[in-house]
Amino acid sequence: MNSRAIEVLVGLFMLLFLGAMFVLAMKVSNLTSFTSTSGYTLVAKFENVGGLKPRAPVAASGVKVGEVSDITYDPETFEASVTLTIDNRFSDAFPLDTTASIYTAGLLGEQYIGLDPGAEEDMLQDSDEISLTQSAIVLERLIGQVLFSRSGGS
User: pTM of the prediction?
Assistant: First the structure.
């Protein structure tokens, strides 16, 4: 092979590599879809949202049913107020006693909200609040509790 052909192959390989890195960056930053989910909104309040970000997935039984549209701080309750946009296909899928928990997925620690439907017959409607929530597990807090319990609590 002459040197010109080798240079062209190396250039093509570099373009392929850069394209793959761009796709990976878009996946990691959760910017793969530029369209927002249309649907109804629910609100859930958490003591700690950890690294949860807007556009994070909302899943039920491992199936994406929506996304986080907004995260704000509520100065009255001293909690984080998370607005979820649930796809219209799931308008009658979540009873009033549905629980919302923040989970971590993957090696990079991407956080998402998992919904666990309850047993109520009445369903959540647009702008309803999910009252049963479980905050994100904060590793530093767990380590502090273990160290405090090992030292005898004094």
Answer: 0.72
